[in-house]
Amino acid sequence: MVHHLSEYLEIPLSERNTLLHAAGFAATYRARDLSDNEMAQVRAAIDWTLERHDPFPALALDRHWTVVRANSSAKIMIAAIGLSEGESMLSAITDTQRMEAAIANWDEVAQHLIVRLRTESTFVGGDPILESTANRMVEERQTRWPERTESLQAVVPIQFRAQDMVLSLFSTIAQFGTAEDIALADLRIEMYFPADDQTRQVLMAMANTT
């Protein structure tokens, strides 16, 4: 009954264990490490996806935005904000000075990240780390919201500063649709695409020189 209700209500796997305990049952769902032997095919799928997306950036993030895996382009991208694999992007996005130095339209991007943090927190039944990060960003930017006077774009690109140019990228997010593991259900693959021809040409040229 608990399993059926959880499926119907689309309750996250981690919360289903809590419900099972409350009903007197043992926890069903595990949180395996990606390095476990049981996860070999999952690792292979993630690595295949990231590698095939080069020369455009792609990375795998856990629930708290830790960079679990990144392709070569994404490693360069996150290095621009002082991060590497194994570190969480949450520590960077609350550092306004760091982000404004790396991203030309940080005010606009920050608004969307706050919404995303709260949406992800709500989906898992409330996550204090995600909520705390969103609140810190709101406090930091209370008087900094730009007025929207123009028509909205189809997607909001992230405009990375790169020496004397700006590289404009937008992202899509993929998840494992049939995950029965807590950690895997929380894992997201975020893939970035060029938002203009200049960005596409620069990234393609970088790939040809490596």
TrEMBL record:
InterPro entries given in the database record: MLTR_LBD
Residues of the MmyB-like transcription regulator ligand binding domain: 42-203
Pfam annotation, one family: MLTR_LBD
Gene3D superfamilies noted in UniProt: 3.30.450.180
The name this protein goes by in its record: MmyB-like transcription regulator ligand binding domain-containing protein
